[in-house]
Task: inverse folding
C-alpha cells in the first residue's frame, strides 16, 4: 500500500473532477472521518494497493500498515483501478462517493431501471429527469426515481440536445452499474 | 398409508444404508407387532423409527406442527411433541400409545447427554462400533432426536437483513412486496429479521467507534452487519484465510457501503502477531466447523464428515479461539469481549472448545444477550465442563426454526496469558515434562532465558517459536508452552490484583526456571 505519486494523483483527480466538479474539495480536503476511536480522526486519503485505488481515512491507514502487502486485500472503499496501460478507470464501488457529490445527474424511469442494471446504456425514453448544463462527455451519475444511485457513465449528449432527440437515442454511455456486483463479481 | 410412505422416503433421503435396511426390515414388524426386538441397538432404532413414524405423520398431516411449536421461543419440546403425536392420526393407536409409553420411559431414563449420538448417526455412514450407538440418544430424548433429523431435511426459511447503512426496513419491505416476494416480518429482535448467522453479531453488540476483528469473515454477512450496527464508525478488520472467498467478501463489503474495513488474508491464528496483542475491543470468531448444524443447506455434510474431521476442526478451533482472546484488550473501555460461534451442534466443537479457552486464558463466560435458545451442556458423556457453560446458547432447527448453531460470549478479565489456577498445574507439568519432548523443551527454555531480559522483540520471537512448536503438539504440549510463555508475559506486564494471590507460586516457578536455565545455558553455549 502506498500513496499515489504525482501522475497517478493527477489522473485520479481528473477523473473525479469529471463527475463531481468542484465538489472535489469536499472529497479530498475537507472530509472529516468518523472512524476509529482516536480523538482526532483525520481526513481521507487515497492509497494504492495492487493497482487499485482506495479511499480511506487516515486512522484506517495507520492500522493497515501492520498488514503485509501480500495479505492486504482491501481497505476502506475502492474507487478505481489503474490499467496496465496506465489509465485510470473508476469502478462501481466508488458509486456512493460519487453520488454524494455528483454534479450531473440523470433519473431513470422505473421501466428502464432494469435495463440499465443489466448493462445497457440509458436511452432518452427512459430518462425521467436530468440536470441542466450537462455537456457532452461529462460524467453523469444515474439514479432511480427514488434517489437510489444505480451507476454512472458518460453523457452522450448535452441536456439541450437531449430534449430534441428521438426516444431511442443514447443519452448516457454506461460505465458502471450496481448490477455488476452480480454479473461480474469476480472482476471487481 | 401415509405413514408407510413417510417412513420409506425418509431413509432414502438420509442415505444411511445400514439404517435404511434395518428400517425397511423392521417396518412391517412394527406395524403388526408392537414388541421390540431384543438387541439394544435395534430397540433404540425401532424406537426412533416409531417416533419417526409419529414425527413423519406429524410432518405430513400436521404440516406446520413442528414449526408452530417454535417461533423463536425455547419451547418445551417434549410436551409439544407428545401433543402432536397424540393428535396426529388414528391409524395405529395402540402402537402409538405403546410407543409413547416407551418413549416416556426412555426420556425419563436419559439425562441431558444426547446430541453426539444423533450426530454420529448422521456422520458415520460406515459400520461403526457398537459403542457409538449404545449410548444413544444422549443429547435428546428419542422423540426429539427424530424431530431434529427430520428438521435437518427441510430447508429453513430464508431470512433477510436490511442494510441499515443504505435503507430502512420499511422501504425494503415495500419494494420486495411490490415484486411479489412473500415477506413475514420476524419482529422479535428489534427491527431486523434474523437467521442463525446473525445471532453471533447480536451477541457481540459492537458499539460505535470500536475496533473489531472478524476472524473468519467471508462471505461477509456478519461483517457487514457489524458495520451496519457500528454505522461505519470505528475499524473492522475482516480476515479470511481462503483466497477464493476473499473476492465475495470484498464485493459484499463494497456493495453494502461499508467504509471502515480492512480486509486481510491471514490464517486466523496469526492475527495476534499482526495486529498486536491486546489491541482490539471485540472479536467475532465464527469458526470453521463441520457444519453439522446446517445440514439443511448442504446435505453432503451428512456423508462426508467422520470423527476425525471433527477432531481436526476442534483442534483448529481451539487454536483460533486462543488467538482471538490474545488479540483482545481486556482493559478496553467498552469492550473486551469475544464471541465464538459455530454452525455445528457437536459438543467437541462447541462446549469443549469454550472449556479449553476457560482453562487456558483469563476469560469468563457472560450471558449472550439472546433470550432464547437452549443453554449449552455442562457435562456430556462423562466429560465435565465448567459450570458457567450454561451461559452459552445452542439453537436447533426443530426448536427454533433456524439452522443449528452455537454461540458463546466471553469476557476477557485481564491480559494475562494464564489463569491463576493453572500455575500450580504448570509446576507439576513442567516437572514431569522434560522427558516428553526434549527438543521443544530446549526451544522453550532458550526462549525463557531470553525472556528473562524482558525485551518485547524477544517476547514476540519466543511466542513465534512456541507457536510453531505448538502446532505440532498434543494439547498437553501446547498447554505447557502457553503456560510457560504466559509466565513470561506476566512477569513483563503490570499485574492485576489476582497476581497477589499467585505471587508465591510465581516465585517458586522462577526458582525452577532459574535452575533449568543454568542447566541449559551450557547447552545453549554449546549450540552457539
Result:
Amino acid at each position: 500500500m502506498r500513496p499515489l505519486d504525482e501522475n497517478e494523483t493527477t489522473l485520479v483527480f481528473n477523473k473525479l473532477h469529471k463527475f463531481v466538479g468542484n465538489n472535489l474539495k469536499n472529497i479530498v480536503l475537507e472530509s472529516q472521518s468518523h472512524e476509529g476511536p482516536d480523538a482526532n480522526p483525520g481526513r481521507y486519503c487515497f492509497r494504492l494497493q495492487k493497482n487499485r485505488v482506495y479511499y480511506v481515512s487516515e486512522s484506517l491507514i495507520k492500522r493497515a500498515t501492520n498488514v503485509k502487502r501480500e495479505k492486504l486485500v482491501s481497505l476502506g472503499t475502492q474507487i478505481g483501478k489503474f490499467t496496465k496501460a496506465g489509465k485510470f478507470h473508476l469502478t462501481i464501488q466508488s458509486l456512493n462517493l460519487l453520488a454524494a457529490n455528483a454534479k450531473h445527474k440523470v433519473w431513470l424511469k422505473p421501466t428502464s431501471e432494469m435495463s440499465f442494471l443489466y448493462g445497457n446504456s440509458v436511452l432518452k425514453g427512459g430518462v425521467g429527469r436530468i440536470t441542466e448544463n450537462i455537456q457532452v462527455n461529462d460524467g453523469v451519475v444515474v439514479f432511480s426515481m427514488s434517489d437510489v444511485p444505480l451507476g454512472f457513465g458518460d453523457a452522450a449528449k448535452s441536456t439541450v440536445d437531449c430534449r430534441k432527440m428521438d426516444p431511442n437515442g443514447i443519452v448516457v454511455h454506461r460505465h458502471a452499474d450496481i448490477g455488476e456486483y452480480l454479473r461480474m463479481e469476480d472482476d471487481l | 398409508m401415509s405413514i408407510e410412505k413417510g417412513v420409506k422416503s425418509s431413509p432414502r433421503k438420509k442415505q444411511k444404508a445400514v439404517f435404511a435396511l434395518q428400517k425397511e426390515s423392521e417396518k412391517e414388524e412394527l406395524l403388526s407387532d408392537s414388541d421390540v426386538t431384543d438387541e439394544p441397538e435395534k430397540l433404540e432404532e425401532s424406537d426412533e423409527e416409531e417416533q419417526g413414524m409419529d414425527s413423519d405423520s406429524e410432518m405430513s398431516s400436521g404440516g406446520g406442527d413442528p414449526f408452530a411449536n417454535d417461533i423463536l421461543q425455547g419451547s418445551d419440546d417434549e410436551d409439544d411433541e407428545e401433543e402432536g403425536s397424540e393428535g396426529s392420526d388414528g391409524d395405529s393407536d395402540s402402537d402409538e400409545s405403546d410407543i409413547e409409553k416407551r418413549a416416556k420411559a426412555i426420556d425419563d431414563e436419559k439425562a441431558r447427554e444426547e446430541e453426539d449420538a444423533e450426530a454420529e448417526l448422521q456422520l458415520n455412514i460406515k459400520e461403526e462400533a457398537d459403542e457409538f450407538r449404545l449410548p444413544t440418544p444422549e443429547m435428546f430424548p428419542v422423540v426429539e432426536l427424530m424431530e431434529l433429523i427430520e428438521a435437518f431435511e427441510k430447508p429453513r426459511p430464508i431470512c433477510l437483513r436490511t442494510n441499515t447503512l443504505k435503507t430502512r426496513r420499511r422501504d425494503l419491505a415495500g419494494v420486495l412486496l411490490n415484486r411479489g416476494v412473500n415477506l413475514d416480518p420476524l419482529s422479535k429482535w428489534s427491527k431486523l429479521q434474523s437467521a442463525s448467522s446473525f445471532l453471533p453479531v447480536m451477541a457481540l453488540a459492537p458499539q460505535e467507534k470500536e475496533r473489531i476483528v472478524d476472524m473468519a469473515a467471508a462471505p461477509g454477512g456478519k461483517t457487514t452487519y457489524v458495520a451496519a450496527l457500528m454505522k461505519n464508525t470505528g475499524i473492522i478488520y475482516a480476515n479470511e484465510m481462503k483466497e477464493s472467498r476473499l473476492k465475495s467478501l470484498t464485493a459484499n463489503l463494497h456493495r453494502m457501503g461499508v467504509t471502515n474495513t480492512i480486509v486481510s488474508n491471514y490464517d486466523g491464528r496469526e492475527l495476534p502477531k499482526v495486529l498486536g496483542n491486546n489491541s482490539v475491543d471485540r472479536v467475532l470468531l465464527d469458526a470453521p466447523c463441520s457444519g453439522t448444524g446446517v445440514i439443511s443447506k448442504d446435505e453432503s455434510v451428512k456423508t462426508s464428515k467422520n470423527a476425525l474431521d471433527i477432531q481436526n476442526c476442534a483442534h483448529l478451533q481451539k487454536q483460533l479461539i486462543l488467538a482471538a482472546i490474545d488479540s483482545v484488550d481486556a482493559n478496553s473501555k467498552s469492550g473486551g469481549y469475544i464471541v465464538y460461534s459455530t454452525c455445528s451442534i457437536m459438543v467437541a466443537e462447541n462446549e469443549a472448545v469454550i472449556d479449553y479457552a476457560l482453562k487456558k486464558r483469563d476469560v469468563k463466560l457472560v450471558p449472550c444477550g439472546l433470550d432464547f435458545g437452549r443453554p449449552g451442556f455442562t457435562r456430556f458423556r462423562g466429560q465435565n465442563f465448567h459450570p458457567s457453560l450454561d451461559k452459552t446458547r445452542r439453537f436447533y432447527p426443530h426448536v427454533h426454526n433456524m439452522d443449528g448453531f452455537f454461540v458463546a460470549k466471553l469476557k476477557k478479565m485481564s491480559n494475562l496469558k494464564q489463569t491463576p489456577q493453572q500455575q500450580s498445574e504448570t509446576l507439576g507439568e513442567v516437572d514431569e515434562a522434560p522427558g516428553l519432548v526434549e527438543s521443544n523443551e530446549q526451544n522453550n527454555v532458550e526462549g525463557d532465558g531470553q525472556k528473562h531480559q524482558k525485551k518485547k522483540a524477544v517476547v514476540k520471537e519466543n511466542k513465534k517459536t512456541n507457536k510453531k512448536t505448538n502446532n505440532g503438539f498434543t494439547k498437553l504440549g501446547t498447554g505447557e508452552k502457553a503456560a510457560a510463555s504466559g509466565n513470561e508475559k506476566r512477569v513483563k506486564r503490570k499485574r492485576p490484583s489476582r497476581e497477589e494471590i499467585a505471587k508465591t507460586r510465581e516465585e517458586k516457578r522462577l526458582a525452577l526456571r532459574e535452575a533449568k536455565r543454568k542447566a541449559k545455558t551450557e547447552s545453549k553455549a554449546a549450540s552457539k
